Amino acid sequence: MHEFRLLAAIALTAGLMASASARILDESKFPDLKGQWDRVGVPNWTPAGTPPFTPEYQAVFEANRADMKNGGAGGVPSQYCYPQGMPMMMNFYDPMEIVVTLDVTYILISHVNDSYRRVYTDGRGWPTEDEFVPTYAGYSIGKWIDEDGDGKLDVLEVETRHLLNPRVYDASGLPFHTDGKTIVKERIYLDKADKNTLYDEITTIDHALTRPWTITKKYVRETKPNLIWYFNDCAENNRHVFIGDDSYFVSEEGFLMPVKKGQKPPDLRYFKSTGK
After folding, report:
1. What is the pLDDT of residues 56-78, one digit of tens each?
2. Within 13 Å of residue 110, how many CA atoms lie on the same side as its CB?
3. How many CB atoms lie within 10 A of CB 198?
4. What value does the mean pLDDT of the chain take?
5. Pair 202, 217: CB distance under 8 Å
6. Which one of 21, 92, 116, 208 is least enclosed by Cβ atoms within 10 Å?
7. Phi and psi at residue 3, in whole multiples of 5°?
8. Residue 175, exposed/middle/buried by CB under 10 A (0-12, 13-18, 19+)?
9. Strand order in 246-250's β-sheet?
């Protein structure tokens, strides 16, 4: 009986090991995306040209720009430590790392509160609204494809939904529709002539636009040894404050200050007057 149990245990262990080995990632079939990636160019959407906004959201954008000129945040929530979210986080305000596994590709960015993205590549479907609460990074489903037919996977196609508002494209205040129905599609791939250059073709489908809008982001791999990774926490020494529907600034002395000419103080109904 003892020998039977021992043989059964050995067989079970061998079966588990075989199953586990079958799930090991074959790195030779995937592009080499290891290392530290930095953006090329300015971190905004202006290279894509004029946004194809509807008249309503063109007016929103112009109002955001006017608010910025007057000292306001111009509808950019990251001014107050909110995450940039998708697709603004792909501007790479800090370097990125990509970790490829069998079922998930992780996009890691240590900037403000945008710490990572999970791109599920296990063939799953979209969660319902009851199953997933919208987030700034959203929910991303991807698929690796062999575009040139050489037997190796070379393009990661990604679609992101379930995005939380408010969000903008970049620090210029380019707005998204308030209905929260944004869909972001990406094609991420290495340059065939330079394996240290990475591209992300980003297409936004949003009801604030008259048509889908596409831009291609370019990143380069840092090749020097002993890479240093920084973590940028915007909560540390952040002096921007959002109260009600308005923004304020905290002075070096710790007092609330206006950011716009003629700006009224916030509602102080819950503070008792000192009578002085």
Report:
1. 999 999 999 998 888 888 888 88
2. 10
3. 23
4. 86
5. yes
6. 21
7. -65, -35
8. buried
9. 240-243, 246-250, 256-257
SS3 202: strand
Q: Tokens for 233, please give them.
A: 């926490």
Question: What token pair was written down for 226?
Answer: 């002993």
Neighbouring C-alpha atoms within 13 Å toward the C-beta of 119: 22
Please report the pLDDT score of residue 276 as a whole number.
54
Q: 6: part of which helix (H) or strand (E)?
A: helix 2-22
Q: Are 139 and 117 in contact (CB under 8 A)?
A: no
Q: Is 184 exposed, middle or buried (0-12, 13-18, 19+ CB in 10 A)?
A: buried
How many Å apart are CA 244 and CA 266, to the nearest integer? Answer: 7
Nearby residues of 274 by Cβ (< 8 Å), 6 or more positions away = none
Q: How is residue 178 written in tokens?
A: 């308030």
Q: Taking the alpha carbons of 233, 235, 239, 242 in that order, is the dihedral positive or negative?
A: positive
Q: 2-56: per-residue pLDDT in tens?
A: 554 544 455 545 554 544 445 687 888 999 999 999 999 888 887 777 899 999 9
pLDDT at 118 over 50: yes
Whether 182 contacts 204, CB under 8 Å: yes
Q: What is the pLDDT of residue 4?
A: 46
Contact of 77 with 166, CB cutoff 8 Å: yes
Q: Using CA atoms, how far apart are residues 162 and 184, in angstroms rounded to an integer?
A: 10
How far is 10 from 7, CA to CA, in rounded Å? 5
